[in-house]
Design a protein that fits this description.
Length: 79
């Protein structure tokens, strides 16, 4: 099994338009709302999320502007 796809580290995310969090293998969204996030390639997208949803991807930032979801947790790959 590829251990890099299994989260080994987790941390709470405080959305910020400047602070980097990544690279991650995904995000957990605890509370319903939008998540505006930048990938490691710099592309920004907005996701409409339900409580308890996982977003998979190599995220580098969760933007404060445009994010209304709460309880966001970064998932970092193992090994």
């Amino acid at each position: 099994m590829d251990q890099t796809l299994i989260p080994s580290k987790f941390f709470d995310v405080t959305p910020s338009d400047s602070a980097r969090i990544g690279p991650t293998i995904g995000l957990y969204v605890g509370g319903t709302g939008t998540v505006k996030a930048a990938g490691v390639n710099g592309v920004v997208a907005t996701y409409v999320c339900q409580a308890g949803q996982y977003l998979t991807g190599a995220f580098d930032k969760v933007m404060a502007t445009g994010t209304t979801a709460t309880g966001i947790v970064a998932l970092v790959g193992g090994v």
